[in-house]
């Protein structure tokens, strides 16, 4: 599903984001990308979202060459991807339902379809009973789960998360990782960038380790 072939990313200011990175990800995999701050984790995710272009090498996502993708193709690419950020970026003047419905409203689906898909997504993160509440009524962990529901509501083949547990205590962080595992079990490919090695080491998944833009490890996360 994902093929990085000698992918390099140099920023205009001369900083190197990634250096000749090569790895493959199969459809349905669950993997972590880890490394210290500045290692290139967010750069890797931004390349997959075509928010940035590689400056060398070749990057394929579901057969599409992201090093050559046209701006007109980017919205279609992003329909295949869901994204979860550290700061969930919810709209606090809208209900949980409306927050999760946002990507579907942008796609222009009809009300009935939106209703069904949103309730399915909220069920997947165990928040069906909170649909009509506002984000401010929810705990931090529940808010992050709304962010995950919104990221999967359009049924993306690939779910990306950038430090999704960065603001959570260890117990909530583990719970959120469990939600990602549930989503992966239903077939979605999941790629999580995180520097929280203590948390990752308690799970059994593939882990890519970056150091200053280079891949220095590709193995199992559990110690
Ligand atoms: N927009 C940018 N402009 C210039 N340099 C950047 C930019 N984004 C990231 N970098 C540089 O790329 C490297 C990797 O950063 P990043 O991908 O954000 O790492 P991480 O997410 O692992 O902390 C760092 O040296 C950083 O300074
Ligand atoms: Mg980052």
Termini gap = 27 Å
Report the radius of gyration as a whole number of Å: 17 Å
State the total count of DSSP E strands.
10
Contiguous uncertain segments of 5+ residues: none
**What helical percentage do the residues reach?**
25-40%
Oligomeric state of this protein: single chain
Family: Belongs to the ABC transporter superfamily.
Subcellular location: Cell inner membrane; Cell membrane
Membrane topology: Peripheral membrane protein
Subunit structure: Homodimer. Forms a membrane-associated complex with FtsX.
How would you characterize this protein structure?
- By secondary structure, the protein is an alpha/beta fold.
- It has a domain at 88-155.
- The chain is built from seven helices and ten strands.
- The chain has helices spanning 41-48, 74-78, 96-107, 111-124, 140-152, 170-185, 197-200; strands spanning 2-10, 16-25, 30-34, 56-61, 64-65, 81-84, 158-162, 189-193, 206-211, 214-220.
- The strands form two sheets. The chain has a six-stranded mixed beta sheet, with helices on both faces.
- α3 packs across α4 (111-124) and α5 (140-152) packs parallel to α6 (170-185).
- The radius of gyration is 17 Å and the shape is globular.
- The mean pLDDT is 95.
- GO terms for molecular function: ATP binding; ATP hydrolysis activity; transmembrane transporter activity.
- Residues 2-223 form the ABC transporter domain.
- Homodimer. Forms a membrane-associated complex with FtsX.
